[in-house]
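Worked example (supplementary).
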Amino acid sequence: MTRREPADPPASAQPALLARGTLADRGELLGGLMLAPALAYVALLAGIPFLLAIALSFSDATAGSLRFGWAGLRNYAAILSDPVFRRALWNTIVVTVGSQALVIVLATAAAQVFRASFPGKRVARFVLLLPWAVPVSLAAIAWEWIFDSTFSVINWTLKAAGLLHGWLYWLGEPTLALLAVIIVQAWRIFPFATVIVLAGLTSIPQEILEAATVDGAGFWRRLFQIELPLLLPVTSVAVLFGTVYTATDLGVVYVLTGGGPANSTHVLPTLAFQRGILGADLGQGAAIAVFLLPLLLVVAILMLRLARHTEVGVR
Amino acid sequence: MASVEIRNLRKKFGSVWAVDGVDLTIRDGEFLVLLGPSGCGKTTLLRSIAGLERPSAGEILIGGQRVDEDVPPRHRGIAMVFQSYALYPHRTVFENIAFPLRAAHAPRRNIEEKVRWAAGVFGISAYLDRYPRQLSGGERQRVALCRALVRDPKVLLLDEPLANLDAKLRNTARDELKRFQRQIGTTTVYVTHDQIEAMGLGDRVAIMDRGKVRQLGTPQRVYEDPDDTFVATFVGQPPMNLLRLCDGAGPPGTLLGFRPEHFLPRAVLRAAEDARSFRFHVRRVEYLGSDRYLYGTLPDQCDPSPTFIAKLPATIGTPVLEGEAYEFAVPVRALCYFDSTSGLRRRG
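After joint prediction of all chains, the assembly is encoded as:
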């Protein structure tokens, strides 16, 4: 072993090679990489079918044949002149608007309840979230029993309470059937909306609510003049989600009424399914399904604008 | 306007008494400051008066009427300004100020008139159409005050209303606040942890610690004549020096207190002045422009380790060097004696 001369500069004094950045340091590349699976998922399972649906809606394709002829606007003309379609379109709007209106009221009320602390709150919150976790088909079967023409618990309860003298054929009468659909849709979205409104409620500074209390506002004034306006951005997001979920839902109507009686409770998704898959007219089915798109787009844009315009206070 | 009377008030949070037996009378038209470190219970006391907290025990009377049991905030005749101002972000300044009037179902014409009048008093007439987010901190604070005072409350409650302003603005805001209060003459309870605000604003100051009022008195009284060591060291910047006496001069367990500004070179005092002298070993000199702070020890005392502070105003030019020892003295009239176990003042 030769001892180094003390005069020798130590090795570390030479400009050492600095460690190179790793992939984790390259935000733009890493970001793209991590986003890729999600993008692929959306493109393959939503994007392509979506484009396919648009293409199909302009074709005369049918199930069981590979023919794909250009049909122009014929499918759209056909459905627009079809009273069943117009009824389904109307039903979609009625069910969506009705269920969302119901959800707003119920979710706001429930959020007020869940903001307070009471014994058993955790259990109650768990129960509240259950409808969100139950598969639609399973839930619809339970509801089918609730609305059953013979065993309907609603009817029997009303009867026992002496409030009902005739008999309600929930799923047999168009208006009642539509009401039943609205109730089930509202029940389905309600937990989600409550959680969102609750989150919005807790984000309102406590001091603002206390200021309103000290300023002399009672419960209702505080609710309508302070809390609800401040909740508007959050509520509109909940409504937007609820609208999209409800308007595009196939399961509830399909299981509950199957579109009956006499095609009177069809909504666009069930009608599209009936025409396109069961009826094998892919072109018309696609046209019905695609018809929803511009409607939902307009709703989404309006809602998001509303949310942005009312976003106040929090900077 | 009304007086506020608090009798043996107690409030428990979990296992902690946030307010632990407070007796306090706030006179009609008085500006009373609740001063104390954070967590001393001052805000809880204020919120109890407002009706935002329900006391665990005790009584609160506003204008001679008992309110603590089931009189809601809106019927107590109080108004409150919060630390964050708590303006309604979705309402214009006008609507913010009008809110308490609308809640009280005031006639429409009256509302307009009162809001414009109040906005004039606070100099915010130009901002009535703006939203709170478009205002500066000082303007928001005035809107909050305006909203509080617009419906002529009997008692005005202020929770650290200047804490969110920058230091420069705080001075002018303090001056304005005092002016408004004098002009309007509303009984005011003001919570702060800032002793300068407390001393500058209060007709009287209540100093709180661990849920209890340690001393209540004029700013001058609590500063010059503290009732215990907590008040002595909490009020005053730098705090009062406390020296443990063990030379057998006083009864055992005596603490001797003196303010840094009374702890001066012996030569500065008049020769005839009856003063107690100490040898002061100066460790560090802090030059602060208008004052010099001298940090050092008293080597001749039985416990020479604690640090003592002398505050020399710029008018005293005596040269002082770090590392040197000097003869310093405190006039006897400026000495306070405390019991070292209870911390209470020993008078006479």
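Two points are worth noting when inspecting this output. Helices of chain B lie at 42-50, 93-103, 108-121, 137-149, 167-184, 195-201, 219-224, 229-234. Residues 1 and 51 of chain B are 18 Å apart (CA to CA).
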